[in-house]
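Sharing a chain and its predicted structure for anyone who wants a worked example. Both blocks are below, sequence first, tokens second.
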Amino acid sequence: MRIEWTRSAFKDARRAPFEISAKLIEALARYAENREAAIDIKALQGSPGKFRIRVRDWRLIFAVDGDVITVTEVSSRGSVYR
């Protein structure tokens, strides 16, 4: 699978603490290799095709379209769902 980042998501990931962004990226890479990987991924309600990865209080929101994963947002828990 190919992983693409929106410009804003890339900037958000750079603003996150290094430890958190590294773990989010690692979890996303594991998911891209094996969709059955045992990581904390859930589908977002009301947004078909969108999912989230959780690491502590941070969330990475992404969409899956065929063989492409598009990361749309990286933010803290309190502001990511708004």
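Comments welcome. The two ends are 28 Å apart (CA to CA).
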